[in-house]
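Per your request, structure below.
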């Protein structure tokens, strides 16, 4: 692995912020080994929003199981909540990307 400690910490920060591993690779470390980036990213994923995506995926799989009317209503509510969470996550990711771009532009100026 050719990543130094600073790179690993940066990948951890990006993972905790919810940035997708493909974007971490393509935008931040395109010259590094892709597998090294993904392996490092997924070391920290349990403490990142990606872990909630995995849980939501499990909830969605439950939605496919036949249920009673009451259970169906609860599962529909969970589905609605998961959709809202995804939208919020995506919005927050865009905000973080804008903040990161602005920060890097400021670094160039100063």
């Amino acid at each position: 692995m050719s990543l130094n400690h600073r790179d690993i910490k940066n990948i951890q920060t990006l993972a905790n912020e919810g940035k997708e591993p493909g974007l971490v690779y393509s935008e931040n470390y395109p010259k590094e080994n892709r597998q090294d980036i993904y392996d490092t990213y997924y070391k920290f994923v349990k403490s990142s929003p990606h872990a909630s995506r995995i849980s939501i995926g499990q909830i969605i799989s439950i939605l496919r199981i036949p249920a009673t009317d009451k259970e169906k209503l609860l599962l529909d509510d969970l589905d609605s909540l998961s959709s809202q969470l995804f939208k919020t996550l995506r919005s927050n990711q865009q905000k973080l990307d804008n903040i990161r771009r602005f920060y890097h532009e400021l670094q160039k100026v100063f």
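The radius of gyration is 18 Å.

Regards,
D.
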